[in-house]
Write a structure and sequence with these properties.
The structure is a single chain. The chain is an all-alpha fold. It has one domain. The chain is built from five helices and no strands. The C terminus is likely disordered.
């Protein structure tokens, strides 16, 4: 069983939060326009996407690979990797390839895939019983 202090579960939960933060950032561009202090922070800039990605990539990789070792469900890993690849592509070339609206839409889709994979990872790890022969 998963304990509340399990680093995999903590990483999954943090990655879900970061994914939703990214999606929220993309879906609510009006917030920046309505809050001048937020505009000063530059949340509408590309650095924000890349900074979030630098947090999400290692955290997601750790959580999804650790979870895979526990529950052996490759679909969870595949969904997470697909979402991460989408996020990487849109951060690097999404604006030039799809325009601003397309980049936002595709980023939200990638964020949702990452969040779904982590939520499923949490669920599967919670129901995973430790084996008697575990290390």
């Amino acid at each position: 069983m998963q304990t509340p202090k399990d680093p995999t579960q903590s990483a999954d939960r943090a990655a879900v939060g970061l994914s939703f933060l990214c999606a929220l950032h993309c879906l609510l561009p009006l917030v920046v326009a309505l809050l001048p202090s937020a505009a000063i922070l530059g949340f509408d800039d590309q650095w924000f996407h890349k900074s979030l990605l630098l947090l999400v990539l290692p955290m997601s990789t750790f959580a999804l690979l650790t979870g895979l070792r526990k529950h052996r469900n490759k679909t969870v890993l595949a969904t997470g990797v697909a979402g991460l690849l989408i996020l990487i592509f849109t951060a690097l070339a999404g604006h030039d390839t799809f325009g601003e609206s397309g980049e936002r839409l595709i980023t939200v889709f990638g964020s949702i895939l990452v969040a779904i994979s982590h939520l499923r990872n949490i669920q599967l790890c919670q129901f995973q019983t430790p084996s008697l022969n575990s290390e």
